[in-house]
User: What shape does this take?
Amino acid sequence: MKGKAITIAARIRRFGNQSGKAISRLIKSVWGPSVALLAVGLFWFYTAHSIPVPTEQTVEKYGVYGDSFGRITSLFTALGFGGLVITLLLQQRQIRAQEEDAKHNRQNDEKGRYEEILFRLLDIYHHTLSEVRVGDTAGRDLLRKALDRVNSAIVEECVNVLPRDIKGRWDSGSLTENDRQRIDYLHYRNFKIVGTEIHPQTRLVDTFEVLLEHMLRGAPDHLLINSYRELVFAQITFIECRYFFLVALSHPSRARLRELLAKTGFFERISLSQLHHLHRDMYKEYWGHELEKRELPASIPMSPGRVKRALRAHKSAGGLPKTTYTPLGVRQSQGALKNDAKDILQ
Assistant: This one.
């Protein structure tokens, strides 16, 4: 019984909602006023005919007959008041709709201004990058050479990794005071090498900071910046990512850059396999931000065990398993070089 009562109540509510929506659509349509006037006219006709006409043509009788229309007068007074209320409600609804339209237009304008400035800053950033020059080297090639110098210098001085004995005690959590001092020396040499070899391009770094600042804080409150962040970071190559990371690591004056790199999710874009583990540890220790290592997806959607079983099956069937592939264009160019060599020898 209880379940049946709940079902009936739900049906009644559903019917009431549907009826209310139907009445609301009727009121908003062009037929609403016509139907209302027709209903009032029918009520007038029914009420007027229900009042008996006086049989005696005297003033008193006609006075009583006229007083009988008082209820109709009260009806029209109530209808007038009801019409005033409906008018106010319609005006309120219209004002609310206008406010919603104005809010929507304002949000579109704010979004348009944000996108316009963001794309303009991207163009300025790329233009600034192309103008970076030292001698005959410019643009990303200049940044790449700076990174290569850093790698070569720290490898040459053997300060790119922790010594094996210290690494073992680091992993086991049993570092000695002498170990920490030796690690401090590695950090010191890395700071000296990176700070000297990177040569931070001030205009480029400042432009990148302005770009990140606008992307993060220039967006309206109603706008999500995830798609814009992906778009901006898609325009930044890994060379630039490593360059800005090393600038933030080795130059204490770049506090604003470090803050923006952390808040915009910049570090999530860096493949940590290309960063020295020592530099990641240094960034965590001195600037308080840990670069978490992301799990990179496999190159093919097959587990290593399944691949091994497939190679064994192919070999047992008399085939020669292949684990590498040379692009067709490379093979064609190699074939052309071999033919040219044969022609020369002949």
In short: The mean pLDDT is 80. Residues 38 and 44 are 10 Å apart (CA to CA). The chain has 14 helices and two strands.
